[in-house]
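Consider the following assembly input.
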Amino acid sequence: GIQVEQSPPDLILQEGANSTLRCNFSDSVNNLQWFHQNPWGQLINLFYIPSGTKQNGRLSATTVATERYSLLYISSSQTTDSGVYFCAVKNSGGSNYKLTFGKGTLLTVNP
Amino acid sequence: NAGVTQTPKFQVLKTGQSMTLQCAQDMNHNSMYWYRQDPGMGLRLIYYSASEGTTDKGEVPNGYNVSRLNKREFSLRLESAAPSQTSVYFCASGQVEGTEAFFGQGTRLTVV
């Protein structure tokens, strides 16, 4: 099946800093989502971005499907940004019902 | 606008007991999913239902059964719980053709 690798696995920032999280995938996709899992365990939808670029406030994401990667940018980070960020994809070849997750990036933003 | 609702939020079981995790969505989605999350493993797919009346195994189906009761509801059953099934379980729903999926708040299950 499709493989999803996220980097870095852990990231520690000071409040106000910027960061870039990366998601590499091993096959063509027709769905790519970024999620934020907050300290209470909730999975929050950030972006649905199988290709192109989107922005939502301090967060933006870019997916280059032909090169099989996606980037999540966090600018002017805040302590509330802390948590785990997951990338998840659906393979456009074969069954397109399975959303496969990477292992996540644990982000800690210190005041 | 409830989205995806899971019950219960927390549960402790003894080894060998059975239970059913309930999931309901109000977004008129065709597809529904059950995942488990374990430390360092990300989320792994247990079972999914592409549409009402169909179910298929995911990566880690052993020890579980599912029922797609209707378009709104998708339940996950543990017939004889084992400590290895201690995990956080998430239900999700989405449309069929590669569109955005939404997750419930999770069920934290401990098997002792």
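Chain B has no helices and eleven strands. Ask yourself how this observation constrains the way the partners meet.
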